[in-house]
């Protein structure tokens, strides 16, 4: 089935939208590395994202601007768009952005949790250990899966690329495993030191892959989407969300979840976005 998608002449970046709200806090960190975006691509096409940077905010800042622009440009190149084409547009955009980060030698990396909302579908996109939830009438219908070095299918790629996963609890208190005893996520944009073999870009075969998971869901009335970085999920379990957000609007949800994360002593930056459809 083709999507009835129309684009505006230019992408519109927004600090807030009538159906969504974002709240962030530096938490116990010395600097803020999270970035986010809300963008209107057309009258019936919107893009939302949270990018949890590590080793600085250079990559997360770059991705928050360039990823929606790249997606918008690729949509403009196609006249008739179906679900599979949208998936390809998103996936190709992630890979293109990662290649650009490598070529421009931008330091650092970022995870991504995003939602592209089309007339008929929700495209929930995750890369790394940020997480997204779809609820309908306050019942969870889908949760993204974190990309962690300890996961078997991730560990296999890491080892085949000539790297190791260290599971020593002394350097890995969260139990995620660390690639070469350093990085605790197995997929991300950037992290250039893991993206080459003798100087040649290795892309999706890298130990830290830029290949995003894309989950497609038919839109329903009363759908709600919660996007958040791991600073929230470290201290709040996904199964708590329906109770915590019950009968709350997007503004109140974000403030309540962030305040609770701080109360439970999250040690990371915290960003949470609530979207109503």
Question: Taking Cα atoms only, what radius of gyration do you get, to the nearest Å?
Answer: 18 Å
The amount of helix comes to 25-40%
Overall spatial form: globular
**Gap between N and C termini:** 21 Å
- The helix/strand series, from N terminus to C terminus, equals EEEEEHEHEEEEEHEEEEEEEHHHE
Q: CATH H level: which superfamily?
A: PPM-type phosphatase domain
Major sheet description: 8 strands, antiparallel
pLDDT < 50 stretches = none
Oligomer: single chain
Helical run tally:
6
Q: Can you tell me the CATH architecture?
A: 4-Layer Sandwich
Round the mean pLDDT to the nearest integer and report it.
95
At the first level of CATH, what is the class? Alpha Beta
Structural class: alpha+beta
Number of strands: 19
- For this structure, the CATH topology is Phosphatase 2c, domain 1
Summary, kept brief:
By secondary structure, this protein is of the alpha+beta class. It is 26% helix and 31% strand.
Folded structure, characterized:
There is one protein chain. By secondary structure, this protein is an alpha+beta fold. The chain is built from six helices and 19 strands. Strands 2, 4, 5, 7, 8, 9, 14 and 17 form an eight-stranded antiparallel β-sheet that branches. Strands 3-19-18-10-11 form a five-stranded antiparallel β-sheet. The longest helix has 21 residues. It is globular. The model has no long low-confidence stretch (mean pLDDT 95).
